[in-house]
């Protein structure tokens, strides 16, 4: 027992369910005093009376208190070196890490042998200083004060201006300190494991100190002591494991000696073995009691601490214990803590749980012990694959994969399907982990030799045929056909051998099925071709598809070599296979379009290096046949791109391909010219064959003109004639007109490329200007065409050409191109604006009618929406680049009001802010705000006008039910807030002042949901309004859980300055931290002084505001005068209210209490999903002691100690945990 002469560092003020006392009794180790016999047994936890009324320690006259020590201590006070060079405390030595931990610990052990008190005092101060405390425990405090008093005294020594402490400080030095801190504790126990830890003094003192610190409300103490205690426990578990091994070895030696015949049996050796076994048993009991003390006194409280980092430490270490000493810790009694913590609110803690479980499930021998845990928590683990934290989701998928590897029956089909679809995730690590799971479940060969033998019997070169068929079926059943590239990328790391088996894929596509194989359906063939093309792209480019990853990364030398090898392999194979595939599927446009993507991934040097020109000729022949057979845009564009790639000047095959391309285009242009002549001659009498001949040939030429310079064939002239004839006669088919517009556009761009690349002559510039001018005139006339596709195409081409031939054309020392600059006149600008107003801002009914009544087709609706967005974006670019006058922006913005008026007529001020209509308007406003660009000075006038008109519109009509109800149009302010970020800081103040003119005194105090638009808009104006606002906002971030910011608290005087900075800042600070405005109390400083100093007559009527809407929209000078007027009024108001505000602030006495280091334990950190229903809890009749005693597994000489454990996974146990632990710690 601990006597009154020994230090009992006990926290008597523990209120969180910690132990009342510490009662540990140990004997000196054999190495210290081998003559000591009959050592006392340590008492079991909870069976000893708590220590009380600690007496002063004996006078140190009989002890060497002043012994000179290596780190320069005297009477427990650190003596610093005068030069300040060498570290003199344990904390400094460990922090610098210049000395090996082995030597540091050995030095401490030597000092402990000389004077236990001073050595322990050194160790106590080490833990105190590692917590960031500036105080020092002196020898007098150590002898005469209780634990609680010492900790309370050290708490007062903290630096209250900073919340940082060594474990949370950033930087490599402190990261290294954490590692050194943990290593020091492990080495200390390892070096003391044979003697000192059994002396009933050192471990008692350390465990008692750490228990008291871990129960402190000071986060730094709690965090540091918990980490120290968990590492201490880990070291003790390792000692216990070694003891168990030694005990088993001793038992085997004893039994072997005892089984010898009487003549050969050595009785002395038997006695020595019995004595050794007894000593090992006693040591094991001592270690068990120590681990019980740490587990029940620290772990069971801190694994549900309010701080996520502390909880994570506990879970990480219990995982280590279960893996290191599975016989003792891998049971339901300890697994339950990991299972419960899977529901933790913080991703960091959930991540530690999953990693701890991964270490267990990796060892297949442990699966039987994990069977009950798997059954109870499998559903939770599977659900975590959809965790909002991507890191957690990845580890959850990996854990599910380990469970699958251990037992095929552990997961149901539904569980597997929940993981399957994650291969299409946009987050690549999640998708790759899901791909590994999918590979293990579906695509791994169980008997490779048998499958290879079967493939040879069938005449197949590869045994992967069935697996590829299964991959195709999986892809088709997932019904995400546009995401084949994602599926391939997900499986790339785990199934490369399968995905690179292009021989097997082409074998399945080209050859007839053998006996025992089913023929691929048309749908399966299309899917296989799509997957094959995606695998080729992945191998050739060696980076994820678009949408995954942050961009192309630099490949390592090994990856680069693999990429080159794969590219050579696929080139050699498909140079021969591709012509055959095109020949078989040339009639299928979808398959051909995919197959024609393959040549862009070829290493084209192989054609000439391998003397494979005949295969090139076969490919060109098949491409020509495809061009002649198809008129689908995607097929023709694929053919055009293939020709463009094969015609690259860097390859020797360029001449051969160029000849084939020129012959093809010559034939098409001759056919086109002949068809155009016939069509124009017959005019209205032209039949369908004439129209088809022109349209089909024009589509092919347009597709080729996109990637090839065809200006020498003068396609513009024929297209222009078709367009003029259509305008004059009004009978040109819309598809021909659309294609003619597009082809003419390409012709102009290729002519511009020629001029910009060389030194253009004046005649060239004049000729191109004439062509552009005539084409712009044709496009302008097409805006009034009766066919919508023609009008939309003409509009898009007009916007693009006006952008290309704008004033920016002469930038970059290209003044010679000035004759090509076009500035749209007012007539053209008005026509473009009217087109936007008529075709973008249309009603839903009009949109449905434009889709010919196909109201059920969601794809058509989405396509129409994208088309409208593209039209609007094309026109807004003209506004941004100052090609179209700025007032056009105001005309567009008016239609936001128009759409909003329609909603207000239906719902009034009680607008459903979550409805799809409101969300659509906000999204449109957000996108429109983005078009203003980053140059806020250029768009200052327009943005200010938008806000002015928007405020007037919001307050224009009062609510007929009375002034206490919000204005009818108030909800429009929520849309207007999307444009607040485009205001410069000075104008935000001005607009905010203008807004307050329309607000009554009661409006600023309302917090109901219907007033949220006003609150939101006002906050958007206050955010970033000035530096004071920013400082207050940054100082008022909401607290997540009860975790404090690692940056610490600002000094007290800085806080006071921030609090007294501005009225608007305090208003914003109060509103920024609140989530449900409906439950807000009226802020004390919500513009009270401003309202008191604003006379009633200064509240203007929006209808009486001087100046009309047109004045503000079309007169920039008036806009700036409005801004200037608002700024003058603001300055005057500040002068009037300045003194009153200071007086009001002094009366209010608003001060934030400096948050101390004392933090209350928060509510339980587990979510309700952990709990069973109340009915289930009532049915549970199992009773057990929640804080179990650590009972190490018996060696073969004490099997009788084994006993059955109760089921510790029941939710009722969690309820007991939440209510605290009633049993004493020791």
TrEMBL record:
Residues 1044-1055 have a biased composition (Basic residues). Keywords: Cell cycle, Cell division, Chromosome, Chromosome partition, Coiled coil, Nucleus. Residues 1031-1043 have a biased composition (Low complexity). It is found in: Nucleus; Chromosome; Chromosome, Centromere. GO terms for molecular function: chromatin binding. Residues 1-82, 1023-1067, 1095-1114 are annotated as: Disordered. GO terms for biological process: cell division; chromosome segregation; sister chromatid cohesion. InterPro entries: ARM-type_fold (IPR016024), Cohesin_Scc3/SA (IPR039662), HEAT_SCC3-SA (IPR056396), SCD (IPR020839), STAG (IPR013721). The keyword Cell inner membrane does not apply. The keyword Cell division applies. Part of the cohesin complex which is composed of a heterodimer between a SMC1 protein (SMC1A or SMC1B) and SMC3, which are attached via their hinge domain, and RAD21 which link them at their heads, and one STAG protein. Component of cohesin complex, a complex required for the cohesion of sister chromatids after DNA replication. The cohesin complex apparently forms a large proteinaceous ring within which sister chromatids can be trapped. At anaphase, the complex is cleaved and dissociates from chromatin, allowing sister chromatids to segregate. PANTHER family: COHESIN SUBUNIT SA-1, STROMAL ANTIGEN. This is Cohesin subunit SA. It comes from Amphiprion ocellaris (Clown anemonefish).
């Amino acid at each position: 027992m601990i006597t009154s002469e020994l230090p009992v560092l006990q926290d008597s003020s523990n209120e969180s369910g910690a132990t009342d006392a510490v009662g540990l009794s140990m004997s000196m180790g054999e190495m210290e005093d081998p003559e000591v016999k009959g050592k006392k047994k340590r008492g079991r936890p909870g069976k000893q009376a708590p220590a009380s009324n600690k007496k002063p320690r004996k006078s140190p006259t009989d002890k060497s208190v002043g012994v000179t020590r290596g780190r320069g201590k005297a009477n427990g006070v650190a003596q610093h070196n005068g030069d300040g060079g060498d570290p003199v405390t344990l904390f400094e030595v460990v922090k610098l890490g210049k000395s090996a931990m082995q030597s540091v610990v050995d030095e401490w052990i030597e000092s402990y042998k000389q004077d236990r008190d001073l050595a322990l005092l050194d160790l106590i101060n080490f833990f105190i200083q590692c917590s960031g405390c500036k105080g020092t425990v002196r020898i007098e405090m150590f002898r005469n004060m209780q634990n609680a008093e010492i900790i309370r005294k050290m708490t007062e020594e903290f630096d209250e201006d900073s919340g940082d402490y060594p474990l949370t400080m950033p930087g490599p030095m402190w990261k290294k300190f954490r590692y050194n801190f943990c290593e020091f504790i492990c080495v200390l126990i390892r070096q003391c494991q044979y003697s000192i830890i059994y002396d009933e003094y050192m471990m008692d003192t350390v465990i008692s100190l750490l228990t008291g610190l871990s129960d402190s409300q000071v986060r730094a103490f709690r965090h540091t002591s918990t980490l120290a205690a968990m590492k201490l426990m880990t070291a003790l578990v390792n000692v216990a494991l070694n003891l168990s091994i030694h005990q088993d070895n001793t038992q085997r030696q004893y039994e072997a000696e005892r089984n010898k015949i009487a003549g050969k049996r050595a009785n002395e050796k038997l006695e020595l073995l019995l004595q050794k076994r007894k000593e090992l048993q006693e040591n094991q009991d001592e270690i068990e009691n120590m681990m019980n003390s740490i587990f029940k006194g620290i772990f069971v409280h801190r694994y549900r601490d309010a701080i996520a980092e502390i909880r994570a430490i506990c879970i990480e270490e219990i995982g280590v214990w279960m893996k290191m000493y599975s016989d003792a810790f891998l049971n339901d009694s300890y697994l339950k803590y990991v299972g419960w913590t899977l529901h933790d609110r913080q991703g960091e803690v959930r991540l530690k749980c999953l990693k701890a479980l991964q270490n267990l499930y990796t060892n297949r021998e442990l699966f039987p012990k994990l069977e009950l845990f798997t059954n109870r928590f499998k559903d939770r683990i599977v659900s975590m694959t959809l965790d909002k934290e991507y890191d957690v989701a990845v580890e959850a998928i990996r854990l599910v994969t380990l469970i699958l590897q251990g037992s095929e029956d552990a997961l149901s089909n539904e569980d597997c399907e929940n993981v399957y679809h994650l291969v299409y995730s946009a987050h690549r690590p999640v998708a790759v982990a899901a791909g590994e799971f999918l590979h293990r479940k579906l695509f791994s060969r169980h008997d490779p030799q048998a499958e290879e033998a079967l493939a040879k019997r069938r005449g197949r070169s590869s045994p992967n045929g069935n697996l590829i068929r299964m991959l195709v079926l999986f892809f088709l059943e997932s019904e995400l056909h546009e995401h084949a590239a994602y599926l391939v990328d997900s499986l790339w790391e785990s199934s490369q051998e399968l995905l690179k088996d292009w021989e097997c894929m082409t074998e399945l596509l080209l050859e007839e099925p053998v006996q025992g194989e089913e023929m691929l359906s048309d749908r399966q063939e299309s899917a296989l071709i799509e997957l094959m093309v995606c695998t080729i792209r992945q191998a050739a480019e060696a980076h994820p598809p678009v949408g995954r990853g942050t961009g192309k990364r630099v490949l390592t030398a090994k990856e680069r070599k693999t990429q080159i090898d794969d590219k050579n392999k696929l080139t050699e194979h498909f140079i021969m296979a591709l012509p055959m595939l095109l020949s078989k599927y040339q009639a299928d446009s979808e398959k051909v379009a995919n197959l024609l993507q393959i040549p862009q991934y070829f290493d084209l040097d192989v054609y000439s290096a391998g003397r494979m020109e005949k295969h090139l000729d076969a490919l060109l022949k098949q491409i020509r046949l495809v061009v002649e057979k198809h008129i689908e845009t995607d097929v023709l564009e694929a053919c055009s791109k293939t020709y463009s790639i094969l015609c690259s000047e860097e390859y020797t095959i360029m001449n051969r391909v160029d000849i084939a391309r020129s012959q093809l285009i010559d034939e098409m242009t001759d056919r086109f010219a002949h068809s155009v002549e016939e069509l124009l001659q017959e005019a209205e009498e032209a039949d369908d064959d004439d129209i088809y001949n022109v349209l089909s040939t024009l589509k092919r030429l347009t597709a080729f003109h996109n990637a090839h310079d065809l200006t020498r064939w003068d396609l513009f002239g024929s297209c222009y004639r078709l367009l003029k004839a259509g305008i004059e006669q009004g009978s040109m088919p819309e598809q021909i007109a659309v294609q003619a517009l597009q082809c003419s556009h390409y012709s102009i761009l290729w002519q511009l490329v020629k001029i910009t690349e060389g030194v253009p002559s004046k005649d060239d510039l004049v000729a191109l200007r004439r062509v552009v001018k005539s084409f712009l005139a044709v496009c302008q006339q097409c805006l009034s065409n009766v066919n919508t596709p023609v009008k939309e195409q003409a509009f898009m081409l007009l916007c693009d050409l006006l952008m290309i031939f704008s004033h920016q054309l002469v930038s970059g020392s290209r003044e010679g191109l000035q004759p090509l600059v076009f500035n749209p006149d007012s007539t053209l600008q008005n026509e473009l604006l009217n087109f936007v107003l008529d075709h973008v801002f249309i009603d839903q009914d009009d949109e449905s009618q434009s889709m010919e009544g196909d109201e059920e087709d969601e794809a058509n609706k989405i396509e129409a929406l994208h088309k409208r967005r593209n039209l609007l974006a094309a026109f807004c670019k003209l506004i941004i680049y100052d090609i179209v006058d700025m007032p056009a922006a105001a005309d567009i913005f008016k239609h936001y009001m128009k759409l909003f008026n329609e909603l207000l007529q239906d719902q009034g001020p009680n607008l459903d802010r979550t409805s799809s209509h409101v969300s659509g308007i906000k999204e449109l406003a957000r996108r429109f705000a983005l078009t203003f660009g980053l140059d806020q000075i250029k768009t200052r006038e327009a943005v200010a006008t938008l806000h002015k008109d928007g405020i007037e519109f919001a307050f224009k009509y009062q609510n007929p039910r009375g002034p206490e109800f919000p204005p009818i149009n108030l909800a429009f302010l929520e849309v207007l807030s999307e444009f607040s970020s485009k205001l410069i800081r000075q104008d935000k103040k001005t607009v905010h002042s203008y807004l307050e003119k329309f607000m009554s005194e009661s409006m600023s105090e309302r917090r109901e949901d219907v007033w949220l638009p006003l609150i939101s808009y006002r906050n958007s104006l206050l955010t970033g309004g000035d530096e004071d606002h920013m400082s207050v906002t940054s100082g008022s971030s909401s607290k997540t859980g009860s975790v404090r910011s690692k940056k610490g608290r600002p000094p007290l005087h800085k806080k006071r300055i921030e609090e007294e900075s501005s009225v608007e800042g305090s208003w914003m600070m109060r509103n920024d931290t609140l989530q449900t405005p409906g439950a807000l109390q009226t802020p004390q400083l919500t513009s009270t002084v401003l309202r008191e100093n604003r006379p009633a007559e200064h509240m203007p009527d929006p209808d009486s505001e001087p100046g009309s809407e047109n004045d503000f929209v079309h007169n920039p000078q008036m806009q700036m005068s409005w801004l200037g007027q608002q700024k003058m009024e603001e300055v005057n108001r500040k002068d009037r209210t300045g003194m009153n505000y200071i007086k009001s602030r002094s009366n209010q006495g608003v001060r934030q209490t400096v948050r101390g280091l004392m933090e209350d334990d928060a509510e339980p950190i587990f979510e309700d999903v952990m709990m069973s229903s109340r009915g289930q809890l009532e049915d549970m009749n199992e009773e057990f002691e929640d804080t179990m005693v650590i009972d190490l597994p018996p060696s073969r000489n004490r099997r009788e100690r084994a006993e059955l454990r109760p089921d510790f996974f029941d939710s009722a146990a969690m309820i007991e945990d939440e209510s605290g632990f009633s049993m004493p710690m020791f």
